[in-house]
Amino acid sequence: MDDEPTLVRAKALVKRFGDFEAVRGIDVEVRRGEAFGFLGPNGAGKSSTMRMIASVSPRTDGDLEVLGMDPDTHGPHIRARLGVVPQQDNLDNELTVRQNLQVYGRYFGLSRAQVRRKAVELLEFAQLSERADAEVEPLSGGMKRRLTIARSLVNDPELLLLDEPTTGLDPQARHLLWDRLFRLKAQGVTLIVTTHYMDEAEQLCDRLVVMDDGRIVAEGSPADLIARYSTREVLELRFLPGEQAPVDRVADLAERVEVLPDRLLLYTAAGESALEQVHAREVRPVSSLVRRSSLEDVFLRLTGRTLVD
């Protein structure tokens, strides 16, 4: 994939709103055919970056090239080749599911015959064929999200931008949406995803950047980032609210210890062995859990707080 052409290239990219600097000089490259992620909490600058890439929000400073063009001078040409899934669904509730696709297709200059064919194809892709002539309003959140993604594909985009695609969805709906995105990637569509769900970033992204306070604090594949900034396993020891966690009695059992309000996180290559030693020292947490390290642990290591703080 390293040999693939670059579809998005940003250098020292800045976005300010008055005195507030939302994006603080970031460098990003997205290659054709990959799923690229922006991982970080709300307010990290992810959505501001996506809006600049989508060519709907001008950059304040720095260089930005999308599909080989400058958004400042070729915005309409870029937007014609993009698919955009906004953070909030903006479907037309007064139209049917099928009509939402057909009307949107007409915006891109497709003929009526073309949008009819495209709507059938996209309804099948989104698993909404049986609801084609239903109104949008009564659809579940997952169905509306799939329809929004289907609508973004009506112009056969080279690059699909998805801003927090599964926020508010239940686990089953999230996994179904992930499956649709995997299929798109297999078809050669380049994906850029923003998310604050670490499992989503691990599932979907070939590469990602971790953003915090408008800056990129790490970049790499999910596996590389976990290997670089965390240990193979994590032992979680939970204690009662207000109870003093015995950090000094377990600190030597791990490479590092993170102290959170309700638990201790012990980073170690062998979680079960560390747990046995915790018990041998008569430390009695309310509950304990040995798990593999995740991108949440990477973010905690880099920023000193969790993604959901």
Automatic annotation (TrEMBL):
Cell location: Cell membrane
Gene Ontology MF: a single term: ATP binding
Highest taxon of the lineage: Bacteria
Sequence ranges assigned to domain ABC transporter in this UniProt record: 8-238
Chief location: membrane
Keywords associated with the record: Antibiotic resistance, ATP-binding, Nucleotide-binding, Transport
Bilayer disposition of the protein: Peripheral membrane protein
PANTHER family in UniProt: ABC TRANSPORTER ATP-BINDING PROTEIN, ABC TRANSPORTER ATP-BINDING PROTEIN NATA
Family: Belongs to the ABC transporter superfamily.
Record protein name field: ATP-binding cassette domain-containing protein
Organism (species): Amycolatopsis acididurans
